[in-house]
Amino acid sequence: MAESAESSKDYFVTxxxxxxxxxxxxCGLRLxxxxxxxxxxxxxxxxxxxxxxxxxxxxxxxxxxxxDRCFVVILFVFILFVICGGVWAVxxxxxxxxxxxGIVNSILTVILAATTVSTFCLSAFRCAGTPxxxxxGSYPVVGKGDLENYTFCHYCSKPKSPRAHHCRSCGTCVxxxxxxxxxxxxxxxxxxxxxxxxxxxxxxxxxxxxxxMSMYASLHIWPPVKYRSIGHLNGFSSHIxxxxxxxxxxxxxxxxxxxxxxxLILVYLFISSVSLQIGLSVLLxxxxxxxxxxxxxxGHLSSQGSGxxxxxxxxxxxxxxxxxxxxxxxxxxxxxxxxxxRHTK
Length: 345
Ligand SMILES: [Zn+2]
Ligand SMILES: [Zn+2]
Ligand SMILES: [Zn+2]
Description:
One of its GO terms (cellular component) is endomembrane system. Helix content is 52%, strand content 10%. By secondary structure, it is mainly alpha-helical. The strands form five sheets. The chain has a two-stranded antiparallel sheet. A two-stranded antiparallel sheet has the order 3-4.
């Protein structure tokens, strides 16, 4: 996007001297270019035309859709398994220790489970952000600068605003697209980005809670650990330390064999929640740092590609603006956005 907008400056329509005749897709005006230009910007409506694009085929769209649906179903079943398995494995232990402990944890579980499931559904099933419908194609209808820096999406056969990207998995243009997430089977864009971040927050908190509770419950029901010869190890050397570690490991392993089904589920919950916690925390941290920098993941990639000439300010205000209410659709109209930029520069 940024590249095509930049390179188009070189081919801006200035003089009408030679006969490179072309029609602007935005306003339908016939333009005469001084020389052949693969990418050019219309002097009237501001739309960018790229003559090098071949009409693309949307191959394997059904395959990508099917993959996304499968991932969503697997993830949803896994979330339900963690909730139900956790309740089945942890609750009897908690209620056997203290009734109050059981009640407090029931409330916590309901809150965390409801938040995780609802934010997951919102980010997965909500439309990621449809670009606004604009008039295009004929001169009197399209005013001067109405399609400033718009390009033509050859997949959707519609104008594409400067902040929109076409997602080949969803088969549509998405406003402020961050990335296509196969696990929610949806794009992360203007309409569901906050829900996606909320889902990551809820999922990280839930996995921390599950790992603590499964650890606590499994320590309570773990069979007695018998050490064979650890008492005879005196003094300290690396050899003795390795020997002691081996003894402890073997003692735990032999007692783990006697674990009940409940104990095995607890061990599984602990291992899976800790590994998910690490992955999700990295993803959440990465997302928050992009929001702090005022860009999306795709914006970050394109700014790297074009040498970083499209620098946004790093500011905590970006995070507040992201989570705050004034997140209206008006910021996606290039005319408003550009006029605001001109004032701040
Ligand atoms: Zn035009
Ligand atoms: Zn498109
Ligand atoms: Zn998508």
